Amino acid sequence: MALMGIDTHASLLEDMFNLVVELGSLLKTLDDAASAKPKIKKIRKDDWNQRIHGGDRKREWRDW
Prior knowledge:
This protein is mainly α. The chain has one domain (2-63).
């Protein structure tokens, strides 16, 4: 009977250790995501007119 208690205790400690390892991995992932630079590119008005109107510079982005 006493051996079952030790085995259960060891299994519980192993599960707790695995949880701590997973938590550390999750925290590292969150830290990496928080420190990443956004990949959003600003579009200038000239670029917008070129893409939308095919180079028709007479039309402005406000004419849309």
